[in-house]
From TrEMBL:
NCBIfam families: lipid_A_lpxD, PRK00892.1. It is an enzyme of class 2 (transferase). The keyword Flavoprotein does not apply. Transmembrane segments: none annotated. Residues 23-89 form the UDP-3-O-[3-hydroxymyristoyl] glucosamine N-acyltransferase non-repeat region domain. One of its GO terms (cellular component) is membrane. Homotrimer. The active site is at 242 (proton acceptor). The keyword Acyltransferase applies. PANTHER family: UDP-3-O-ACYLGLUCOSAMINE N-ACYLTRANSFERASE (PTHR43378), UDP-3-O-ACYLGLUCOSAMINE N-ACYLTRANSFERASE 1, MITOCHONDRIAL-RELATED (PTHR43378:SF2). InterPro entries: Hexapep (IPR001451), Hexapep_transf_CS (IPR018357), LpxD (IPR007691), Trimer_LpxA-like_sf (IPR011004), UDP_GlcNAc_AcTrfase_non-rep (IPR020573). This is UDP-3-O-acylglucosamine N-acyltransferase. Pathway: Bacterial outer membrane biogenesis; LPS lipid A biosynthesis.
Length: 340
């Protein structure tokens, strides 16, 4: 797809210096820019590349004073990094949303419906009584079970498995290999030492504007719903157990595990490989560091937690300053004991 610089400036609210009719069809790093590409400059250490690049255009700050002549066209904006991000978003949406129609073979039960401008990839499956909104893209080998709902403009990438009764909102994106609505981990111990499976009869509700990474699993509730609220962003390889509730605009990094029936507040940040036990509540605006274990309720909003088991960050850093020096402290104690 080609765009003129005038079109791009209109998207970004910027101003062209040079040939506004020039076209670009590619996004380049400034140090690797070639004809037909557009790049950006936000970090001053890359400014020398501005005078060398062969890119057709570069997005720069409206306040940047040029030290030399440039060969490329310029688009001046308030914030080049934000502007380039807007351009990436626009390009990504156009690319992802461009497909329409049905690739054969694909299956959708006659009792299900799909809105206008949708796409169903080859070997995709849509079960009974599903309601799928407008402009939804369901790519190859994706599975949508019976009685599911999917809102407008949502993208289901190849190989996603959405189990029966799941509810997915509008403007969501679920990446390849993710499983939504698999059985929760419920087993009742028996007197003979075996375990009896507890039926998982609830569902999963994913609200609007949620992103779920590749190979992440969100288990269905035992009863009721596992709920991912609007604006949540979940990385690859995250486990969300049955009956978990994740509050609005919380972000969760890769390899985190959240045990059943835990409630996580709004605007939390959970770093990679964090482990959270079940049946607890975590307050809004909590930050949980990488590899941190959470074993009890977090009631104070806005805390930053780190360590295993988690403690207040300041307390952890004080303790760490001591235990990293334990070998030297031990040696000093031995020397003092010898003197006695």
């Amino acid at each position: 797809m080609k765009f003129t610089l005038d079109q791009i400036a209109g998207i970004l609210g910027g101003k062209v210096e040079g040939d506004g009719s020039a076209t670009v069809n590619r996004l380049d790093k400034i140090q690797e820019g070639k004809a037909g590409g557009i790049s950006f400059l936000s970090n001053e250490k890359y400014e020398p590349f501005l005078y060398q690049t062969e890119a057709t255009a570069v997005i720069i700050s409206e306040t940047l004073l040029l030290q030399k002549e440039v060969k490329c066209n310029l688009i001046r904006v308030k914030n080049p990094y934000t502007g380039f991000t807007q351009l990436l978003e626009a390009y990504s949406q156009l690319t992802k949303q461009s497909k329409q129609g049905v690739e054969e073979p694909a299956f959708m039960d006659a009792s299900s419906s799909m809105g206008d401008f949708g796409f169903r990839g080859a070997f995709s499956y849509i079960g009974k009584n599903c309601k799928i909104g407008k402009n939804v893209k369901i790519h190859a080998q994706a599975h949508v079970g019976d009685n599911c709902e999917i809102g407008d403009n949502t993208i289901i990438h190849p190989g996603v498995k959405i189990q029966y009764d799941s509810r997915i909102g509008s403007n969501c994106e679920i990446h390849s290999g993710a499983v939504i609505g698999s059985d929760g981990f419920g087993f009742a111990p028996q007197e003979d030492g075996t375990y009896k499976t507890i039926p998982q009869i609830g569902n999963v509700i994913i609200e609007d504007n949620v992103s779920i990474g590749a190979n992440t699993t969100v288990d269905r509730a035992t009863m009721g719903s596992t709920i991912i609220k609007k604006g949540v962003k979940i990385d690859n390889l995250v486990q969300v157990a049955h009956n978990v509730i994740i509050g609005e605009n919380t972000v969760i990094a890769s390899q985190t595990g959240i045990s059943g029936s835990t409630e996580i507040g709004k605007n939390c940040v959970i770093a990679g490989q964090a482990g959270i036990v079940g049946h607890i509540k975590i307050a809004d605006n909590t930050t949980i560091g990488a590899k941190t274990g959470i074993s009890k309720n977090i009631t104070n909003k806005g805390q930053t937690l780190f360590g295993f088991v988690a403690m207040d960050l300041k307390d952890f850093l004080k303790s760490y300053a001591i235990f990293r020096n334990l070998p030297q402290i031990q040696q000093r104690i031995k020397e003092l004991e010898k003197k006695d």
